[in-house]
Specification:
The protein is mainly α. The protein contains twelve helices and no strands. The chain has helices spanning 2-15, 18-23, 54-67, 71-84, 89-100, 111-122, 127-130, 134-155, 157-169, 176-192, 196-209, 213-231.
């Protein structure tokens, strides 16, 4: 039995050795994860006709628009793709999130577009758990909600609190720097609402996640204000 296994292994080594491949006219190449590979021809040649039908053409169009940072064109192509590729909905949702986060020439993103993309995923939470696209979808989803929270903190405090609460529910998916950000935003909101105790608590939580000299100074200032209030 042992000799038979050895013989089979030896035959396989001979058959699949580089010399045998070379003799057959097959070139052996090595590819590493760090190596940059060229994209398909359609990424560079507009004259190339994409094969595979309307759905593939739309997905290629979305990819081209994403590369060109054309948010409107990218979102339009993805939206049309949903009706043709229902089985690909999680992948399309991931692309929608990526397109929605594209910034314009003023370096601003569309809150409406990002909210719409997030809402689509919220309607199908299983996509982030059991689908092959789950890892990429989860990352893009969290990034989109972080973008919303940051912007809403500046312009829409009521919505910001709701978004921050949603991020709290996603804590296992956040890293320490992201958790620090949401506590900092909560502290900013509480400070604007003149709730210094809550502001101090949130900012201290932020510091526990990620140290910041500026934030430490703010906490010291708030603590001083609270002490002065008590002395009155």
């Amino acid at each position: 039995m042992l000799s038979s296994r050895f013989l089979i292994l030896l035959i396989l080594l001979i058959l699949f050795s580089p010399k045998v491949f070379a003799a057959a006219g097959v070139t052996m190449i090595s590819v590493s994860m760090e190596q940059n590979l060229e994209a398909p021809r359609w990424m560079y040649d507009s004259k190339i006709k994409v094969k595979g039908g309307p759905l593939i053409a739309l997905m290629v169009e979305a990819k081209k628009a994403l590369q060109a940072k054309d948010r409107a064109r990218c979102l339009a192509a993805v939206q049309k793709s949903y009706t043709l590729g229902k089985s690909l909905a999680p992948w399309l949702a991931w692309n929608q999130l990526m397109c929605a986060q594209l910034r314009d020439k003023q370096d601003e993103f569309s809150i409406a577009a990002v909210s719409a993309a997030v809402n689509r995923v919220d309607a199908q939470p299983k996509w982030m758990l059991y689908d092959p696209a789950a890892p990429q979808l989860k990352t893009a989803y969290v990034r989109a909600i972080l973008l919303l929270a940051e912007q809403q903190t500046k312009s829409d405090r009521r919505s910001a609190w709701k978004t921050i609460d949603k991020l709290q529910q996603l804590r296992p998916w956040l890293n320490s720097e992201e958790r620090s950000k949401i506590y900092r935003w909560a502290g900013d909101l509480a400070f604007v609402d003149q709730n210094l105790l809550s502001a101090q608590d949130f900012l201290l939580r932020s510091l526990n996640e990620h140290e910041s000299a500026d934030l430490r100074t703010r906490v010291d200032s708030i603590r001083t204000s609270l002490l002065l209030e008590r002395e009155k």
